[in-house]
Specification:
The chain is mainly beta. The chain is built from 6 helices and 25 strands. Strands 1, 11, 14, 17, 18, 19, 20, 21, 22, 23, 24 and 25 form a 12-stranded mixed β-sheet that branches. Strands 2, 5, 6, 9 and 10 form a 5-stranded mixed β-sheet that branches. The longest helix is centred in the last third of the chain and has 10 residues.
Length: about 350
């Protein structure tokens, strides 16, 4: 259990250089270089600057950037409103080789002077590797009381206040996590179901103004897509074991190790609900058609999908994605996003419905 204040974080926050790239997903492969990502919790849209140059443009509210490779040394990171040349916050950074840094923009929504807070994940997570999965909770809900965070029935972070973050080891597999008012275990402010896989880091962050607090969550790993899916499927109460079996049968699981991919992954409940005879997944031709419809042969980050998009799947048919950050994320108007998992060669969007390829 660990908690750090903004004051301490601003002292620690002296890190980062990014090699500008149009394909940040490739940078997420295992590398001796440092890496950096930023959680945007302040502006409707923000530009992120490195040494006077924009490296990410139009990063939407409550979206985390991709990780990008950064070189050791001294640099300046800044954020501005999208399209503006006037940064609203900046920091001098000194990058350490081989480290992963997550930077959170702390402050009330559209605050004139936000704080840039760094989490050196490599350092702070070194004490939380026994279970193989870790969780970082960031509290940026203004007006919210300090909270105690629990995993299952155990308090893992105490008195987490506005502008602070906490780290804890996560139990593997399916578990409940949430927060209560400090010292009041029966006063549950929120509770959600999570699933932890070995070799992953989950980041949950709270934004907004109390009591209208938004809870956002994503998981990241350096493992490529097949390795992550197989590790997840092997755990009790897995939500993707059916998907992995079907991808394997269709001969598509190994394909997901050969390039960059976006996978719209129906959970087990979605396949269990597929009882109306819409398609016969026991037929090899139908199985290959349906499963390839859930795969996009390119990396599409959450920021890429904001708005409405027609996307070509691996089988050539179109997927219609509509995403309003913090509100809704649907595929073909029927499948809702459950969680997102960023892997070494792409991203997995866990959805609650099996998608039917168009018949024409």
């Amino acid at each position: 259990m660990l908690k750090k204040s903004i004051v301490f974080l601003l002292v620690v926050f002296s890190l980062v250089v990014i090699l500008p790239t149009d394909r940040p997903a490739a940078a997420r492969q295992t590398t001796p270089d440092a890496q950096f990502r930023l959680i945007q919790m302040i502006l409707p849209q923000a530009d992120v600057w490195l040494d006077g140059e924009v490296i990410w443009s139009g990063l939407h509210y409550v979206i985390t950037s991709d990780s990008a490779v950064i070189e050791p040394g001294a640099h300046i990171i800044a954020i501005s409103a999208a399209g503006s040349t006037e940064p609203i916050a900046s920091v001098d950074l000194e990058v350490e080789e081989g480290h992963l840094y997550t930077i959170a923009t702390m402050g009330e929504y559209e605050t004139p002077t936000p704080e840039l807070v760094v989490i050196d994940e490599t350092t702070v997570l070194a004490n939380y590797q026994d279970t193989g999965s870790n969780a970082i909770i960031i509290q940026n809900g203004s007006g919210a009381p300090p909270v105690d965070v629990f995993f299952v029935d155990t308090i893992v972070i105490t008195e987490l206040g506005f502008g602070e973050y906490g780290i804890a080891a996560a139990p593997l597999g399916l578990f409940h996590a949430g927060a209560t008012a400090v010292g009041q275990p029966d006063s549950v402010l929120f509770e959600s179901e999570y699933f932890a896989v070995p070799g992953t880091t989950a980041i949950a962050y709270l934004t907004g103004t109390f009591p209208d607090i938004r809870r956002n969550f994503f998981t990241s790993t350096q493992d490529n897509m097949p390795d992550y899916l197989l590790a997840s499927a092997a755990l009790p109460e897995s939500r993707v074991s059916v998907l992995v079996d079907l991808l394997t049968t269709a001969g598509l699981l190994e394909l997901l190790d050969q390039g960059e991919f976006t996978l719209f992954a129906p959970n087990n409940a979605a396949f269990a609900a597929q009882t109306d005879g819409l398609f016969n997944l026991d037929d090899p031709t139908t199985l290959a058609e349906v499963m390839s419809y859930h795969i996009v042969p390119e990396y599409l980050s959450p920021n890429d999908l904001v708005g409405e998009h027609a996307i070509t799947s691996l089988n050539g048919a179109t997927l219609d994605v509509a995403y309003t950050p913090g509100e809704s994320f649907t595929v073909n108007g029927i499948a809702n996003l459950v969680l997102q998992f960023r892997v070494g060669n792409g991203i997995i969007y866990l959805i609650d419905t099996v998608l039917a390829p168009p018949t024409e």
